[in-house]
Specification:
With 140 residues, the chain is of the alpha+beta class. Helix content is 39%, strand content 20%. Bound molecules: adenosine-5'-diphosphate and magnesium ion.
Length: 140
């Protein structure tokens, strides 16, 4: 076990439905601490850069359009094994496959509009945190 930081986004389907608090409660109840947070509207350029790894996937255009359709809340989460813990609390990408009690099982609308993003590795967590936050914005 190690103290880690990971990157989280509360996605447009969730900000639109005013359930950011319910999602943060799940993260906190799961043992994660919000050490940085801001509500932003992503630009198309920022969203395309963030999801560049998926640029050849058929859903890329739809994903970018979705991510800029409403505000998002970007966060840095800290805790023991935060990267894996956050993915556990989030649940599977497709809400139909997500375990009971997970954010995506309870709140996601579809495989695309699935309420949250979470980094998939410690290496990507560092890259994603730096893509949205500077050091002074993270207060542990
Ligand atoms: P995760 O967010 O669980 O890490 P991926 O990295 O595979 O999942 O995909 C990134 C995001 O792209 C997903 O969270 C979802 O919003 C969207 N997405 C993934 N697969 C599909 C799909 N088949 N159709 C539409 N959108 C998708
Ligand atoms: Mg992913």
């Amino acid at each position: 076990m190690a103290l880690q930081r990971t990157f989280s986004i509360i996605k447009p389907d969730a900000t639109k439905r005013n359930i950011t608090g319910a999602i943060i409660k799940k993260l906190e109840d799961g043992g994660l601490r919000v050490v940085a947070s801001k509500r932003i509207r992503m630009t198309r350029e920022k969203a395309e850069g963030f999801y560049a790894v998926h640029k050849d996937r058929p859903f890329f255009g739809e994903l970018v359009d979705f991510m800029i359709s409403e505000p998002v809340v970007v966060q840095v989460l800290e805790g023991e094994d935060a990267v894996a813990r956050n993915r556990e609390i989030m649940g599977a990408t497709n809400p139909d496959e997500a375990a009971d009690g997970t954010i995506r099982k309870e709140f996601a609308l579809s495989i695309g509009e699935n309420s949250v993003h979470g980094s998939d590795s410690l290496e990507n967590a560092k890259i994603e945190i730096e893509y949205f936050f500077n050091d002074k914005e993270i207060v542990g």
